[in-house]
Design a protein that fits this description.
Blueprint lengths: L14 H17 L1 E4 L5 H15 L3 E7 L20 E8 L9 H7 L1 H11 L5 E2 L7 E6 L5 E4 L5 E8 L9 E6 L9 H11 L8 H20 L19 E2 L7 E4 L4 E5 L8 E9 L8 H8 L13 H9 L1
Antiparallel strand pairs: 1-10, 2-3, 3-5, 4-12, 5-12, 6-11, 7-10, 7-12, 8-9, 8-11
Helix pairs in contact: 1-4, 5-6
Bound molecules: 2-oxoglutaric acid (AKG) and fe (ii) ion.
The site of 2-oxoglutaric acid has 9 residues, from strand 11 and strand 12.
Length: 324
C-alpha cells in the first residue's frame, strides 16, 4: 500500500483520514464507486503485474451468456422480461488458487487495513474476507474482443485493483450506474431495462418486453421528476432514454476502486489491441464464510470448489480475533 501518498492509512481515526473517508463515502453513495489512485505503486505493483502476466495465458476463459442478475432464468416470469434477458460475456479469470502461495496481491487482500478502509466506506462496522477458494481474490484477464456485459455482482462488496490497461484508450472501460437497489431481492426492473435499452441495445435480441419495461420506467421517471425537483446531476436521467447515468471509472495501474457491485449495474466494454486488460478483484462480505455459488464458480473459473480459502501463517488467528 502506498503510505507515502496515503499517510493517513496508518491511523484511520486521524482528522486527515476522517476527511478522506467522508469524501469517499459520498462518492460511493452518490455515484456507486470511490477510487484511490496509486493505492499500490512501485515494486509491489510491478510484482502483482508480473504474477498476473505469468498466469494470464492459462486462465480459464468464459464465453457465456448471463442475465444482469447473474441468476438462472426465472421460469416463472415472462421469458421476455429483462429479468431473463441474457447477454454475452467473454473474460478469463485467474483464480486465487492459481496465484503464487505468498503473492503480494494476496497479502494486500488479507491486509486488515484494506478491510477497515472498505468497511468505513461501505458503512459497515466489520466486513470479512470471502471464504471462496477461487473467487476471493482473482484477476480478470480481458484479451482483445473480450467484454463483460451489464450485471450486479453476487459478492456484496467489490473492490478492484487495476493492474494493466488495454492497449487502445477508450476500450475495456469499467462503467457503472449509481446504486439502483438496496438488496438483491429488489430487481429494479425498470432502471435495469432503461439502462440496458439506452447503453447496450446491441445485447438485446428480443426487444419487445424490454421496450415495454423501459417505457413504463419512462412514465415512472416522469412522475418521479414531477414530485422531486431537487435532484443533483447524477440523479438526472438521460434525456433521450430516462436511463440512470452511466459513469466511467478513471482507472490507471495501481488504482483501487471500491464499488457497490451488488447494487450498481456495471460492465466492462470491449477491449481492443494486443495488450490484455488485467484487473484484480477482491471480494468482501458482511458475514464470515461467504462463498460464491457453484454456478458462478463454474462460469468464471470453469470448476467449482467448496474448499475454504487457504490461510497463510498467522492469518487464521488474525481472522478469529477479528470475529470476536
Ligand atoms: O474487470 C473489472 O473491472 C470488474 C469486472 C466485474 O464487474 C466483475 O468481475 O464482476
Ligand atoms: Fe462485476
Amino acid at each position: 500500500m502506498n503510505f507515502e501518498k496515503y499517510p493517513w492509512l496508518v491511523d484511520l481515526s486521524s482528522p486527515e483520514a476522517v476527511a478522506a473517508i467522508e469524501k469517499a463515502q459520498q462518492s460511493f453513495q452518490q455515484t456507486g464507486a470511490a477510487i484511490f489512485p496509486n493505492f499500490l505503486s512501485g515494486l509491489a505493483l510491478q510484482e502483482c503485474i508480473q504474477d498476473a502476466r505469468a498466469q494470464e495465458s492459462t486462465a480459464f476463459t468464459t464465453d457465456d451468456v448471463h442475465t444482469a442478475y447473474l441468476r438462472p432464468i426465472n421460469e416463472n416470469t415472462d421469458p421476455l422480461s429483462v429479468e431473463n434477458l441474457e447477454m454475452r460475456t467473454q473474460v478469463a479469470s485467474i483464480a486465487y488458487d492459481e496465484l503464487p502461495p505468498n503473492s503480494i496481491l494476496g497479502s494486500v487482500y488479507e491486509h486488515p487495513l484494506l478491510r477497515k478502509l472498505v468497511s468505513k466506506i461501505v458503512g459497515k462496522d466489520t466486513i470479512y474476507l470471502s471464504d471462496d477458494s477461487l473467487g476471493c481474490c482473482s484477476i480478470n484477464v480481458f484479451r482483445a474482443g473480450y467484454h463483460h456485459s451489464f450485471h450486479f455482482d453476487e459478492s456484496e462488496f467489490s473492490t478492484t485493483l487495476m493492474l494493466q490497461e488495454s492497449e487502445i484508450p477508450g476500450t475495456g472501460l469499467f462503467q457503472y450506474t449509481k446504486p439502483l437497489r438496496d438488496s438483491p431481492d429488489d430487481l429494479a426492473l425498470t432502471s435495469v431495462a432503461n439502462a440496458i435499452h439506452a447503453y447496450a441495445n446491441d445485447a438485446v435480441t428480443t426487444k419487445s418486453r424490454l421496450l415495454l419495461e423501459a417505457s413504463s420506467a419512462k412514465e415512472q421517471t416522469i412522475s418521479d421528476n414531477n414530485n422531486n425537483n431537487d435532484d443533483d446531476d447524477d440523479d438526472k436521467s438521460n434525456s433521450s432514454s430516462f436511463a440512470p447515468s452511466l459513469h466511467t471509472l478513471d482507472f490507471a495501474p495501481g488504482t483501487l476502486s471500491i464499488f457497490a457491485g451488488s447494487k450498481s449495474l456495471h460492465r466492462v466494454t470491449r477491449v481492443k489491441g494486443k495488450r490484455s486488460r488485467l484487473v484484480a478483484v477482491f471480494t468482501f462480505a458482511s458475514q464470515p464464510g461467504f462463498q460464491n455459488t457453484s454456478t458462478i464458480q463454474n462460469m468464471f473459473w470453469g470448476r467449482s470448489s467448496s474448499r475454504t480459502r487457504p490461510r497463510r501463517g498467522g492469518q487464521k488467528e488474525a481472522e478469529e480475533k477479528q470475529q470476536k
